[in-house]
């Protein structure tokens, strides 16, 4: 089990506006998962599309570059 000091270089953060609802995007292989944790209606959609998976990875990489490292 890794301690925080071993994974700290991998952690970054962006300002986050808290709301009562939360959504998540997960990219894996050639799929994109869109997950909504709405207070009333939870929902998940998986889209199999190499082009969309590539786009979401590029978006993640762009945000990762501007995020601040967690200290």
Give structural attributes:
71 residues; alpha+beta; three-stranded antiparallel β-sheet; two-stranded antiparallel ribbon; 5 strands; 30% helix; 35% strand; flat
Task: Summarize the structure in words.
The structure is a single chain. Helices cover 30% and strands 35% of the residues. It is flat. β3 (31-37) and β4 (42-48) form a beta hairpin. The protein is α+β, with helices and mostly antiparallel strands and 71 residues long. A 3-stranded antiparallel β-sheet has the order 2-3-4. Strands 1-5 form a two-stranded antiparallel sheet. The model has no long low-confidence stretch (mean pLDDT 80). The protein contains 2 helices and 5 strands, in the order αββββαβ.
What secondary-structure arrangement, pairings included, does this model have?
Elements: H1 4-7, E1 12-13, E2 22-28, E3 31-37, E4 42-48, H2 50-66, E5 68-69
Short description:
The protein has 71 residues and is an alpha+beta fold. The protein has helices at 4-7, 50-66, and strands spanning 12-13, 22-28, 31-37, 42-48, 68-69.
Distance between the termini: 20 Å
Low-confidence stretches: none
Q: What is the average of the pLDDT values? A: 80
Instruction: Indicate the radius of gyration in whole angstroms.
Output: 15 Å
Helix content: 25-40%
Q: What structural category characterises the helix and strand content? A: alpha+beta
